[in-house]
Automatic annotation (TrEMBL):
One of its GO terms (cellular component) is cytosol. Pfam families: Thiamine_BP. Signal peptide: none annotated. InterPro entries: MTH1187/YkoF-like (IPR029756), Thiamine_BP (IPR002767), UPF0045_domain (IPR051614). Belongs to the UPF0045 family. Residues 3-94 form the Thiamine-binding protein domain. SUPFAM superfamilies: MTH1187/YkoF-like. Transmembrane segments: none annotated. This is Thiamine-binding protein.
Length: 99
């Protein structure tokens, strides 16, 4: 499965920024060893249900450690039997664009 998720604390720093808290969540994802990527809006992580959800929970927990309230947006692509889709899906789109 691939999960795209976004975590944000309820409040930001003195400028309204949330990058420090979000960076801690991304650090958890990267330390998991699961295939992942981060863009301006979401972090994508690929793996089995239990391992991906455990990583999401850990990421929420580190943000919750610095904020009394946490927002989580999550979207999942659940396709049993498929791996390596984090990049393969994008490659298929690029191929289709080349047609």
């Amino acid at each position: 499965m691939i999960v795209a998720f976004s975590i944000s604390p309820s409040g930001g720093d003195e400028t309204g920024g949330v990058s420090r808290a979000v960076a801690e969540a991304v650090r958890v994802v990267r330390a998991s060893g699961l295939p992942n990527e981060t863009n301006a809006m979401f972090t994508n992580v690929e793996g089995e249900w239990d391992e991906v959800m455990a990583v999401v929970k850990q990421a929420v927990d580190v943000v919750a450690a610095v904020s009394p309230r946490v927002s989580l947006v999550l979207k999942a692509d659940i396709r049993p039997g498929y791996t390596g889709q984090l990049t393969a899906k994008v490659e298929r789109i690029e191929e289709a664009l080349g047609d």
